[in-house]
Design goal:
The chain is an alpha+beta fold and 210 residues long. It folds into 2 domains: 2-80, Glutaredoxin, CATH 3.40.30.10; 88-193, Up-down Bundle (Glutathione S-transferase Yfyf (Class Pi), Chain A, domain 2), CATH 1.20.1050.10. The chain has helices spanning 10-21, 43-48, 67-77, 88-104, 111-117, 121-143, 155-169, 178-187, 191-195; strands at residues 2-5, 27-30, 56-59, 62-65. The chain is globular. Its cofactor is glutathione.
Amino acid sequence: PVLYSYFRSSCSWRVRIALALKGISYDVVPVNLVKDGGQQFSAEFKALNPMQQVPALKIDGIILSQSLAIIHYLEETWPNPRLLPQDPKKRAQVRMIADHIVSGIQPLQNLSILKQIGEKKTEWAQNCIASGFQALEQILQHTAGRYCVGDEVSMADLCLAPQVANAERFKVDMGPYPTITRINKGLLELEAFKVSHPSRQPDTPAELRA
């Protein structure tokens, strides 16, 4: 497999965690979203992913984009360890939390949006994340065990940790979100989350390396 990734992209990080958890070795092709006006806009990359976004994964003779679609494919082809619970209710809760983050929070503070917001981009990102985290904190109080849903790492957790990293980057006050903070702390202690972390990627700038 070949993963087209950017070290700081939260969508790419989700997929890197899934690959690490399932023990799938892969090659990385870095796509710098800032350099050269954004390498994702090159004709070469557009041929791979017409949406001109990372991640994209070349695997089993196909090219997949969209992080959750990639994770679902990995789940179906490499079932262990499981990232979606067998219990239908828990499975629905995992998908709900994942969608909450990938549809309701992350796109609103994405690089392409922040470029259009201009000077007030930090304030905009803080508001978007805080609004989403207020709801997420309430949801997790009903679903969480050690992790987002019960005591097993799931697709919801793969979305949570990168989003908390975004929140910290935009200096969001995490005080009002003790459940999110506790789960994230536990996740960052897991090896799969460590090796896939933005501070440990081949394209991580020297000053941001762990």
